[in-house]
Amino acid sequence: MTRPPAAQATNYAEVLDFPTKRLILIGVLLGLFLSALDQTIVSTALPKIVADLQGLNLYAWVTTAYLLVSTALLPIYGKLSDIYGRKPVLMFGIAVFLIGSMLCGAAGEPFLGNLFGGGMMQLIVFRGLQGVGAAALTSIAFAIIADLFAPADRARYQGLFGAVFGLSSVIGPLLGGFLTDNISWRWVFYVNVPIGLVALSFIATRMPILASGLKPKIDLLGSVLIVLFSVPLLLALTWGSDSVYSWTSPTILGLFALSAASLVAFLFAEARHESPVLPLTLFRNPTFTWSVIARFLIGAGFLGAILFLSLYLVNVKGVTATAAGTATIPLTMGIIAGAIGSGQVASRVGYYKFLMLGGLAVATVAFWWLSTMNVDTPYWAVVARMVALGLGLGPALPLYTLALQNAVKPYEIGVATSSGTFFQQMGSTMGAAVFGAILTAGLTSEFKANLAEVQRSAPFALQSQIAPFGQAEGGTRPGFDPATVRAQAEAGVREAFGRQRDLVTRALRERDPAAIARLREDERTPENVRGLLSQLSAAGQVPAGSETANAASEQALRGALASLSQAETQALAQTGTTIDRISRAVKVSFANAISRIYLISILIGLAAFLVTLALPNLRLPKRGEKSGEDRPQVPVAEV
User: Which parts pass through the membrane (predicted)?
Assistant: First the structure.
C-alpha cells in the first residue's frame, strides 16, 4: 500500500484548539462508557429478564450474542475508520447501539408480536445488534486519542480511557440492580439513550471527520473471513466451557474446523489485497507483534481475575451474587489508579516500557498472593490482594495501546488500535474457556476428596444427602444452601428411621429368622438394636405362636423401637454439625480449586512479562516531533 501524500492528511493535534479537543474527548468518553457499561449493567438484571421473558435455556446467549458480534467486528471498524474517518464510523456505531438498546428494552412487548420466535429470542437478536454498534465505540475511541493529541500527550489521556472500563464495572452492577428493583429491567437498556444522544451531539457538532486521506478499495472478502474465523472460534470456546456440548462433539469440532479453514483463507486473502482489513505487514513491526501477544495474555489473566474473584467471594466468603459485583470495587479502584497514574508518568518521563514491566511484575506477584487464599483468609486480606492486582493490571490498559499507536504509520492507527483490542478480547474468551475447564476438573476432585470423610462419618440417613455433592462433576454440582440441605437431611433421617421401624416391627412380630438376620447384619441398624436382635438367636427353639415366643418378640420389639428412637434423636442432633462440615468442605473445595487457577495465572503473568521484555523500548516523541514510521525508531537502552 502506498503512502498518501502529506497534503491529504491533516495533523488534528496541531490544528484543533484544546477546548474543541476537550468537547470531542467528552463525547468519545461517553460513547466508550456506553459500551463498557453495557457489559456489566445487564448482568444483575438477567434473572428478572429471564423470569419475565421465560427463556432460562437461552440465558447465556444474552451475553454471548453481544460478545460474538462485537469482537468479530473490531478490526473491520478500525480499518473503516482509517479509510472514511473516525467521525462517520463512530456516529454510525452510536446510532446502531442506541437503536439496539431501545429494541432490547422493548423485547417481549406486544407490538413486536412473535418476531424471531418470542421475547427471549428478540432480546438475543437485539443484543447482537447492540454488539454491532459497540464494536465501533470500542475500536475507534482509543484511536481518536492518537488523532487529537501529539504522542507526548497521548499517555495521560489513554489512562482516562482505561479508567472508563474500571468505572463502568463499579457503576454497572449498582445501576442495573437499582433500575431492575425500582423501575423495570427495561430501563437497563433505555438508560443508554440519553447518554448516547449527549455523546452524539458532542461528536456531531465538534468533531472533525478525522480522515487519513486514503481511498483504497474495501476488503470485503477479508471482512467476511475474519468474521467466519472469530465467531465460530468464540462460539466453540463458549459452548465447550459452558458444557453445552462436549469438547469432542461434532458441533464443537466442526466449529473449530470452520474457524481454522477461515483463518487460512484469511491469511491468503490478506497477503494479496492492496488494503487488507488487517495488514499482515503490521506483524513485521516488532512493537505491534509483541504488543498484541502481550494483550492477548493480559486479556486472559484480567478476565480470569474478575471471574474467579467473584466466584471466590460468592462460594467461599458467602456474599450474594449481586454483592460480589460491588465487592470487586477495590480491584477496580486499583485498575483506575494504575491506568491514570501510569499514563501521567509515561507522559512526563517519555518512556513506558519500564511501567509495563513494573505493572506486570506487580500483577504476577498479586496472582501468587491470590493463589495463597484459602477458606479462612480474612476479607481485608482479599481486598489487599485485589488492590495489588488492579495496580498491576492498570498500566496494561493504556500503555500497550500507546505503544501500538507510537509504532505504526498515522493512517494505520485505527486498524492497529482495534487489532490490539481484538486480540485482548480473544484472549479473554479463550482464557475463560480454559480456566473454566480447569476449574470444573479441579472442583470435581476437590469435592470427592473433601466430602468423602464427611460422608463416611455422617449418620447413614444423611449420607444420601451428601452423595450428590461428592459424586457430581464440578460443572454440574448442585447448589449448596445449608438451610435447605438441613431440612432435607432431617426429613431424610426421619424417613429412614421410619423404614427401619417398619422392618424391625415386621421381622419381630412375624419371627422371620432371615429378616432378623438381615437387620442384624445391616450396618445402618443401630448397634444397640443389633444386640437386641442377637438375643433372639434361640428363637428357633421356641415354637412360633407360643406365649413365650410372643412375649419375647414383643419385649424385643419394644426395646428395638426405643433404641431406634434414641438413635434417631442422636442422628438429628448430629445433622447440624454435619451440615456445618459439609458447608466448610464445599468452601474448601472452591478455595483450593480457585487457588490453582491463580497459580496458572502466574505463568500467564510471567509470559506477558517476557513478551514485553522483547518490546522495543521506544521514546515518546516530544511536541512537534514526528511519530511512528515518520521518524527513525531507535530503541534506547533496554530496561
Answer: 23-46, 58-77, 89-108, 128-150, 157-175, 187-208, 220-240, 252-271, 292-313, 319-340, 352-370, 382-403, 597-615
